[in-house]
Amino acid sequence: MSHNQLQFLGAAGCVTGSRTLLGCNGRRVLIDAGLFQGYKNLRRRNWERFSPPPDSIEAVFLTHAHLDHSGYLPVLAAAGFKGPIYCTEATRDLCEILLLDAAHIQEEEAAFANRHRFSRHHPARPLFDQHQARRAISQMETVAFGHTLALGEIKAQWYPNGHILGSGSLLVQAAGQQILFSGDLGRPADSLMRAPEPPPGCDVLVLESTYGDRRHLTIDAKQQLADVVRETVHRGGDLLIPAFAVGRAQLVMLLLHRLQQSGEIPSLPVYLDSPMAIDTSQLMMRYPDQHRLNVGQCQTLFRHIHYTRTPEQSKALAAISAPKIIISASGMATGGRVLHHLKRMLGDSRNTILFAGYQAGGTRGARLVNGEESIKIHGHYYPVEAEIQQLDSLSAHADNDEILQWLRKMPVAPKRILINHGEPSAADHLRVRLQEELGWSATVPAYRDSFDL
User: Fold this and answer.
1) pTM score > 0.85 for this model?
2) Would you say 453 and 6 are in contact if contact means Cβ atoms under 8 Å apart?
């Protein structure tokens, strides 16, 4: 008798490390291969030997390019996975940017730690390097939205879900069953990305729950951003916005541009200090059908931004005394150039650090938002005197109301629902809402749980 099995090798009990193994009559495919981020006990999993053996996996299906979904691919390939990695064209383009940048940052941070001897590991080494990232990128094969990929008895289709460029929900047909992986759901009224397409019918639904216990504030994000800018300028400080290089950085730029055009905020210089975010911004012009701006609007927007590509240009920002806005990655302040800006800016009460999206537990971003008085960066503690703010309403993730709104468009109720990609409280809250409001029963898997379907 033919059957399917799902095993949750990540994004179970947490929002990172998305890895779901589908077994179909002895064949194995992996849906997403992400990095664990945040708490140390989670990050340690990135270094553990992957089970099952990577060479036993036939293919990887990728929902989108964010590192908590794609960042483990170089490690998997280095450990023996030789199969194809299927994804949309924009996801492949973004992965080339994201994976090479992640490798570069890890190489730099390992070298920095070895120079200054603050790592417990001697020598410190990157999880993966640029050579390994390029190997994984070379294994990627693209599939257009709505087209069917046939891999023997396993078939897959991607449906745009509005999270970032290239992002999609994934419908897998295997052994007579339809299994839908929601991926990270975008928002129906996002200023930049198009709304998620309605979900197709399925037998089994694997549903994300990042904001499963929250509703985004109804306040106008643009107005909230304007207030933060004006208050910071009034104090004579600088505004630093740690923003995810893919999606959030571009949305922040768009809102700042519109606020300056309308005269609601002073015409301050805006610096995009992230080569990855700069490259991603250029990609938006290649895929205008996936977001709400046309090519002309993109060109106008980017013309008003100062790009700082080189480390020297980034360091030179410290010498500019006039008030300015710096957008820099990473969005949770886990690494990259934003750390050097934080070291310089945290100790000055005139400055504002504004987080523009979800902060996973255990990250520097979460600790700053939660009010910690000092933060460790590169082996040293820095006192937090700057104003810390967060714009939750800029999130690229659907909240619990928006998730239910999407689910109500399903043609039929799924026979089985498995909730992943959420902190325990978020996943369980969404489970209860599904039961009480839709009458759908759902299960929240634990790490490494397996389910016969």
Assistant:
1) yes
2) yes
Angle between helices 89-116 and 275-284 (to 10 degrees): 170
> Which uninterrupted H or E stretch holds 439?
none
pLDDT at 1 over 60: no
Question: Residue 121 carries which side chain, given as an amino acid letter?
Answer: H
Tens digits of residue pLDDT in 149-207: 999 899 999 999 999 999 999 999 999 999 999 999 999 999 899 999 999 999 999 99
The partner residues of 205 in beta bridges, in order of sequence, read 180, 417
Q: Do 221-394 and 4-214+396-452 fall under one CATH topology?
A: no
Contact (CB, 8 A) for 224 and 104: no
Name the DSSP class of 333. Answer: S
Residue pLDDT, tens place only, 363-417: 899 999 999 999 999 889 999 999 999 987 778 899 999 999 999 999 999 999 9
Q: Which fold has domain 4-214+396-452?
A: Metallo-beta-lactamase; Chain A (3.60.15)
List the CATH code of the domain at 221-394.
Answer: 3.40.50.10890
| Tokens 């104003």, residue located | 387
Q: Tokens standing for 334?
A: 């886990």
Contact 169, 161 (CB under 8 A): yes
The Cα diameter of the chain in Å comes to 71
Residues listed for the chain: 453
Domain residue extents for the chain: 4-214+396-452, 221-394
